Recover the amino acids of this structure.
């Protein structure tokens, strides 16, 4: 048999709410047994009546905490449907989600795939309680009950298309489910499989049965293979594992808990009783599993037995194992059973044992067996080559092999052989020579369907990361891959894990900070790149980023290599060396081009690709290069020639920035023919260029009139007639270089608008030297195109400030301005912060490029923490929902948050809030009451923009009921068919408007306001 990897685990067992707590319980030989909770059944009445009447001999068992808690909003399940669901469905749904996350996968990634779901279950007590209460059977009761639905729920909500089935072979159900899952993987039916088991004791029925059959332990505790063994103690729990073919898991670098080498299932047939164990069948199934796994009995270091603690069961199991291991008296095989800690978890017993074995192999330690101090001498374990563990067993280095048995009361037996994960699955990737990925700083991300859920999960992550030392790179890289897919996006950068923990704690504690670090993007992000021009340069610009980021280093080196044949000296070395020559035009222009090109290419490699481009003067060269106008080598030649030719021009010119509009200056310029407008940066931001003497005269006049000016520190009068002597020579080079049409929308500062299939050829670049820079017009046109983000590409945040000051050219939100480089001290952290900002706004970076290869290794982060605010249970009558707190005190629901739907909210704007219609509108009130009754919502939870299907969890059955309830309140609706109604169910507001029109009711429209 080919091997199957266990790549993800989640579980809840008595005294152990998660896998970490489960392992702790096992290692300390903890006891999860307690008194039957009041919630399970009428405990007080049961305690007195059942014992007095001899029905049951115990009120003890292993029970999980809070099985009624369910985060229905996370799965978009209405309260009414949640209340009708078997708690086993609810537990499995949350457990499966967490197990998939533990496997290093965002569950949404499995949507649409042929992932299989195999659930072991033997109890259907919820159905017994509710489907026999005929007065309260609802449409939801059908989907809320039934074995098949336990698996189908998972497949439906995770949108899985592979095999989906529930298995009932009594106590062996969940190990048989693992067997079937493994076979489905090996046959190619699926590439991933979720195998699970669940058991919730809702009634005393099985406790009474065990007592009447002489199988029940009076203290409610299983004592496997012990002299104290006196019967079964009941237990509850849920567990799920994610399985994958070993070769696939290794190829993808997934972490592996353990490997399933082989499994086998058989049946007792007609033996010594339908419910009695059969030694011969058990030893046969063990032999078959060994054979399929390709192991000898002597290879098996320990076995997790079925171990119910009944006299006959323990004897049969010991004999079956002894048949294979009797020759190991010198080195007996270790034997134990988790039932000593938890009780017999029935349909979940196999998965409880599997997870114990997988964790034991993972930690290379087998926990001691509870109740092993007094071994049952009648079993003759030593003679059978077996021993109970009285202390934890350390497994030696190398491959360790373990067995696992699970035997069904009706005679269906299962055995599995597992081994430790191959060494290569745990090895970090070697650091390659000359790695050219990574930005030097990690970006931790987390998403959730609502702000309160985000805060809850931030706390869980910070606590887990604070509890153990973890490398930041793998932690952040894993968060990017696994904690994605929900509406609310949180992101922060950090230099190390300690700093990350502090930032997570601070965000969780401060709502305002959390809001600043969280985005809820609506429409698809649309990104503009703004390339800074001359004047923004300084010595050592981007040196910190070059130091921290191998990715940026790669592209700056690339630009430097392209420039070197034309500059004669390294631009890169000049930058990194802090040479003041960077202010000289000869060096400033190619240096700014190199920085703009390298930063733009770095962002592109990181998955941040521009939809719109704009460059300020010399910044347009890098923009054109990235837009495909010409290759890097040609762009480098052209920009180097531009800078060198301008540097050779005679001195005598200058530039003057004026706080006035272009039109205000025209009259003054008419009298000064040697000065002209060089740059228009805004309605009242103009730069003049020309002869120094003329500029001084204008400056004095402006000062006298109270108009502010500033003389720019430049070597020449750029964009003026003083550039004319270089144009002819520059034109020759420009014609040789050529230039095509941009492949992306590029907003030209030469024309002040987007280029419309116009080439940026030699004529363009010659005119670009001489004519004014129409930045304000070009930027206004770009803003009108509706970018959600404006990323400034350059060494200083110059253009962002100018663009913010431009008047709003069209309705809509301003873009978010993102600064990958903020100034002289910038390094990898600023680039990481920019990525975080973009992610919050809806951009999904290529996270692999953010990290060096050595950091792209999986790290097991805590899985999603579900809300326990909503409770669903039954209390001797119809199914009802119970909330622990009044509605007003509960966290905002995911449904309420969805009023921020993309089509209603421009990205980057504030929260949209909705006003309820004025009281007395009968149509609105009727519709809200009907929706509330069908879904189980309070009417004040319902907002007009809530979507019935996506937000409120409606389905076709609920729609039929909704129509009936509306008809009761609005008789006029009786003339409608379901076909009439279906197209008008997009949202609550759409339905209300439709009903108003149909009923002829004049009523004020639903109003909205922005906050």
């Amino acid at each position: 048999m080919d091997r199957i990897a266990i790549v993800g685990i989640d579980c809840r067992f008595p005294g152990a709410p998660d896998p970490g707590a489960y392992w702790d319980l096992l290692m300390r030989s903890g006891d999860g047994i307690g008194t039957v909770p009041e919630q399970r059944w009428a405990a007080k009445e049961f305690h007195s009546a059942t014992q007095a009447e001899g029905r049951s001999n115990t009120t003890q068992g292993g029970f999980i905490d809070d099985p009624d808690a369910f985060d229905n909003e996370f799965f978009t399940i209405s309260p009414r449907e949640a209340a009708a669901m078997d708690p086993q469905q609810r537990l499995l749904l949350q457990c499966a989600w967490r197990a998939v996350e533990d496997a290093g996968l965002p569950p949404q990634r499995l949507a649409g795939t042929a992932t299989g779901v195999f659930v072991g279950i033997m109890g259907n007590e919820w159905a017994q309680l509710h489907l026999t209460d005929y007065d309260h059977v609802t449409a939801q009761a059908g989907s809320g009950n039934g074995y098949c639905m336990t698996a189908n729920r998972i497949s439906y909500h995770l949108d899985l298309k592979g095999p989906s089935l529930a298995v009932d072979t009594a106590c062996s159900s969940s190990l048989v489910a693992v067997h079937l899952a493994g076979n489905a993987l090996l046959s190619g039916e699926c590439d991933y499989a979720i195998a699970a088991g669940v058991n919730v004791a809702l009634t005393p029925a099985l406790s009474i049965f065990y007592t009447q059959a002489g199988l029940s332990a009076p203290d409610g505790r299983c004592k496997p293979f012990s002299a104290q063994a006196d019967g079964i103690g009941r237990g509850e729990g849920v567990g799920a594992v994610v399985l994958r073919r070993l070769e696939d898991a290794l190829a993808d670098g997934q972490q592996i808990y353990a490997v399933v080498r082989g499994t086998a299932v058989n049946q007792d047939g007609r033996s010594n009783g339908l419910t009695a164990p059969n030694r011969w069948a058990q030893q046969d199934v063990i032999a078959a599993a060994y054979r399929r796994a390709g192991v000898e009995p002597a290879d098996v270091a320990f076995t997790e037995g079925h171990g119910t603690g009944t006299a006959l069961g323990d004897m049969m199991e010991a004999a079956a194992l002894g048949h294979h291991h009797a020759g190991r008296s010198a080195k007996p095989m270790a034997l134990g059973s988790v039932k000593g800690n938890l009780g017999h978890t029935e349909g979940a017993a196999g998965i409880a044992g599997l997870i114990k074995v997988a964790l034991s192999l993972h930690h290379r330690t087998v926990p001691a067996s509870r109740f092993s101090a007094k071994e049952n001498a009648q079993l003759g374990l030593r003679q059978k080559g077996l021993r109970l563990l009285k202390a934890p067993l350390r497994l030696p280095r190398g491959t360790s092999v373990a067995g696992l048995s699970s035997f069904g009361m009706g005679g269906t037996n299962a055995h599995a052989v597992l081994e430790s994960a191959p060494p290569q699955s745990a090895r970090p990737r070697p650091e390659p020579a000359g790695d050219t990925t990574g930005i030097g700083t990690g970006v931790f991300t987390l998403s959730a369907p609502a702000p309160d859920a985000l805060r809850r999960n931030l706390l869980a992550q910070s606590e887990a990361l604070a509890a153990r030392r973890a490398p930041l790179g793998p932690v952040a890289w894993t968060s990017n891959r696994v904690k994605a897919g929900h509406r609310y996006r949180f992101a922060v950068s950090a230099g190390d894990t300690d700093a990350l923990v502090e930032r997570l704690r601070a965000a969780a504690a401060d709502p305002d900070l959390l809001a600043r670090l969280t985005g809820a993007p609506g429409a698809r992000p649309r990104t503009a790149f703004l390339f800074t021009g001359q004047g923004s340069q300084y010595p050592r610009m981007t040196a910190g980023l070059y130091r921290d980021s191998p990715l940026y280093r790669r592209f700056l080196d690339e630009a430097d290599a392209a420039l070197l044949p034309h500059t004669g000296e390294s631009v890169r070395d000049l930058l990194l060396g802090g040479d003041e020559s960077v202010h000289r035009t000869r060096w400033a222009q190619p240096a700014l081009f190199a920085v703009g090109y390298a930063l733009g290419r770095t962002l592109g490699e990181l998955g941040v690709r521009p939809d719109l481009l704009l460059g300020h003067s010399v910044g347009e060269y890098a923009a054109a290069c990235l837009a495909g106008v010409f290759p890097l080598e040609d762009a480098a030649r052209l920009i180097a020639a531009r800078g060198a030719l301008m540097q050779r021009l005679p001195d005598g010119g200058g530039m003057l920035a004026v706080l006035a509009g272009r039109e205000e200056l025209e009259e003054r310029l008419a009298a000064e023919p040697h000065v002209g407008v060089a740059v228009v940066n805004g309605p009242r931001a103009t730069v003049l260029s020309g002869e120094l003497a003329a500029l001084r005269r204008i400056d004095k006049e402006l000062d006298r009139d109270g108009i502010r000016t500033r003389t720019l520190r430049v070597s020449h009068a750029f964009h003026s007639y003083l550039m004319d002597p270089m144009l002819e020579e520059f034109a020759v080079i420009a014609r040789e270089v050529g230039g095509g049409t941009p492949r992306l929308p590029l907003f030209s500062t030469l024309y002040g608008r987007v280029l419309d299939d116009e080439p940026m050829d030699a004529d363009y670049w010659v005119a670009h030297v001489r004519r004014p820079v129409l930045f304000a017009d070009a930027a206004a046109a770009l803003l009108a195109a509706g970018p959600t983000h404006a990323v400034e590409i350059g060494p200083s945040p110059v253009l962002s400030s100018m663009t913010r000051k431009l008047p709003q050219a069209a309705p809509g939100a301003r873009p978010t301005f993102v600064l990958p480089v903020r100034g002289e001290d910038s390094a990898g952290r600023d680039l990481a912060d920019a990525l975080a900002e973009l992610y919050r706004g809806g951009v999904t970076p290529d996270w692999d490029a953010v990290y060096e290869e050595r950091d792209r290794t999986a790290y097991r982060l805590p899985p999603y923490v579900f809300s326990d605010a909503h409770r669903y249970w039954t209390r001797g009558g119809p199914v009802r929902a119970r909330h622990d707190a009044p509605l007003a005190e509960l966290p905002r629901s995911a449904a309420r948050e969805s009023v921020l739907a993309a089509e209603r909210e421009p990205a980057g704007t504030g929260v949209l809030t909705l006003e309820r219609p004025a009281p007395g509108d009968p149509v609105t009130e009727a519709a809200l009451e009907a929706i509330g009754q069908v879904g189980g919502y309070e009417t004040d939870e319902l907002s007009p923009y809530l979507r019935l299907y996506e937000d409120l969890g409606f389905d076709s059955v609920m729609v039929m009921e909704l129509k009936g309830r509306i008809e009761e309140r609005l008789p006029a609706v009786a003339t409608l068919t379901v076909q009439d109604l279906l197209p008008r169910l997009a949202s609550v507001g759409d339905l209300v408007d439709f009903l108003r029109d149909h009923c002829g009711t004049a009523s004020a429209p639903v109003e909205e306001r922005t906050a």
Summary: The first strand starts at residue 4 and ends at 12.
